[in-house]
UniProtKB/TrEMBL annotation:
Residues 391-494 form the GH3 C-terminal domain. Residues 297-362 form the GH3 middle domain. It comes from Aquimarina spongiae. InterPro entries: GH3 (IPR004993), GH3_C (IPR055378), GH3_M (IPR055377). One of its GO terms (cellular component) is cytoplasm. GO terms for molecular function: acid-amino acid ligase activity. PANTHER family: GH3 DOMAIN-CONTAINING PROTEIN (PTHR31901). This is GH3 auxin-responsive promoter.
Length: 509
């Protein structure tokens, strides 16, 4: 029966019609004002003079002048360490009930990021905004009766020192509203299984009992899960199991590298909607089908600042120089990569989240993620960002009609000369030398700094092909399988040596 779906769709359409577009610049000014007011009596607020900033006629300018940039390690060592130890009123009033564990893409040691009740509320409100945006997509009423497969990390949160810990997807899933529980799959029991492979096996076993209309999760892990379900049931595509699947809500990384291999798992195209949910908060979501850009959520507990992503502002390790200039939403420009800074209702302040973005529509506050600051390869001046790497690989896919969903690379030295050594996750029959030459030419054509580097200190490009599944196995070996885990696109020489040893050992065994 579609009557329930028709009612739900009607409510969403009505809510969407009644909702007005916020003035994003004014909304951001109000968010900063609210953050400063609420945190002015915290230890952080006292240290950086929030009360004085609040008396200023130029609050945004004074806030930027008085408060330094913080990456995770700086904020942890100076402030969040005390929050984790149970002290109250450090960077946000009270003490959080949750900590999001995030290994990110580098290092084996988990980061612990505070998640306050204010942030839980903000994430829930952002989720509602995203649901309301479905009114802009041409979806039938029957879709709104189907179940949603949310493939995140385990909801079996660990209790430690009076608080609960887990990845943000697990924390969010454990706080879903009661009315959503009937739609949510794989359900609380399976979602609590900590071992990713065992959880996926249980999903495969139960798959035919569910009528899945939408998927949500990181593309690399979603692909693996779908393939496991297909293989378990000896099916041709996932639509043989879930014929009503119509929507995939992607997030965490760009979907484009996975598009060709993902679509091979489907009987027909589905609607792909991008989101930007990080351990630090729900930052943006795709609001309309005309673009795959995402709208910054400017009125929901996160204040944004932007630092032009220029080599002179970035240290060799990807960190941000303290004298780098920042701007507000009012001053951003098109065609410029920015390092994203956030201040949040979880007590993050001028926090370098690690992503770079560019604006595709300033009036709508729509962005695309262009890469990671630590994935910026600038050895010998090549100035390669992840979006340039992705673009070059998409050209190769098109030219050779192949798929390259995974890759990693490093600047390596051979006889004291620098080479870019790429590992491509692909089963293409194209030989490695041809792939290397094509990749090199594409990057030269698209990036003048790379071309200059190739004529000087950067001597060449090497390509090694490996099976795609080895990238997931590497994550598993790093104790980071599933959930929010993203593959390192650029590695240090030391990390790259570990990667090569892992590949050699895995293939030989």
């Amino acid at each position: 029966m579609e009557i329930i779906g028709s009612i739900v769709k009607g409510v969403i359409n009505l809510k969407g019609a009644l909702s007005s577009e916020p003035n994003h610049i004014e909304a951001q000014e109000k968010v900063l004002l609210d953050l400063l007011k609420k945190a002015k009596h915290t230890e952080f607020g006292k240290k950086y003079g929030f009360e004085l900033i609040l008396q200023s006629d130029e609050i945004q300018e004074d806030f930027a002048r008085e408060v330094p940039y913080f990456d995770y390690h700086q904020l942890h060592s100076s402030w969040w360490r005390r929050v984790i130890e149970g002290e109250e009123n450090i960077t946000w009033p009270g003490n959080p009930d949750y900590f999001a564990l995030s290994s990110g893409t580098t290092g084996k040691k988990s980061k612990r990021i505070p998640v306050t009740e204010d942030m839980i509320t903000a994430i829930r409100q952002a989720g509602i905004k995203q649901v309301e945006a479905l009114s802009n997509f041409d979806l039938p009423a029957s879709f709104f009766e189907k179940e949603i497969m949310m493939l995140g990390s385990s909801t079996d949160l660990k209790e430690k020192d009076g608080h609960l810990e887990g990845e943000i997807s697990g924390i969010s899933a454990s706080n879903i509203p009661f009315w959503f529980e009937g739609y949510y799959k794989p359900g609380s029991q399976i979602a609590q299984i900590d071992d990713w492979d065992k959880r996926v096996l249980r999903i495969a076993e139960k798959a035919k009992d569910w009528d899945i209309g939408a998927l949500s999760g990181i593309p690399s892990w979603m692909e693996l899960m779908l393939q496991k379900v297909i293989d378990y049931h000896n099916a041709d595509t996932i639509h043989d199991i879930w014929p009503n699947l119509q929507v995939y809500t992607s997030g965490g990384v760009a979907f484009a590298p996975y598009e060709k291999s993902f679509n091979k798992l489907l009987a027909h195209p589905i609607t792909v909607i991008d989101t930007y949910l990080a351990s630090e908060g729900f930052i943006a979501y795709q609001e309309r089908p005309e673009t795959d850009a995402m709208k910054l959520i400017t009125d929901n507990g996160i204040y944004f600042e932007f630092v032009p992503f220029q080599p002179e502002y970035i240290n060799q390790d990807g960190s941000l120089m303290q004298d780098a200039p920042s701007i507000t939403l009012a001053d951003v420009e098109m065609g410029q990569d920015y390092v994203l800074l956030i201040s949040t209702v979880s007590g993050a302040w001028r926090y370098i989240i690690g992503d770079t973005i560019e604006f595709t529509d300033i009036e709508r506050a729509e962005i695309k993620i262009t890469g990671r600051t630590k994935f910026f390869l600038n050895v010998v001046g090549s100035q390669l960002s992840v979006n340039k790497m992705n673009a070059a690989l998409r050209e190769i896919e098109e030219k050779f009609d192949t798929e390259i969903p995974e890759f990693t690379l490093a600047a390596t030295r051979i006889d004291n000369e620098f080479y870019h050594h790429w590992y491509l996750g692909t089963d293409t029959l194209i030989d490695e030398e041809t792939l290397a030459n094509t990749l090199d030419k594409s990057l030269k054509d698209a990036n003048k700094n790379y071309k200059v580097a190739r004529n000087k200190a950067l001597k060449g490009v090497k390509v090694t092909k490996v099976p795609v599944e080895l990238f997931a196995e590497w994550s598993g070996a790093q104790k980071k399988k599933g959930g929010q885990v993203k593959m390192e696109r650029v590695m240090s020489e030391e990390k790259f040596s570990e990667w090569e040893a892992f590949i050699s050992q895995t293939i030989s065994s």
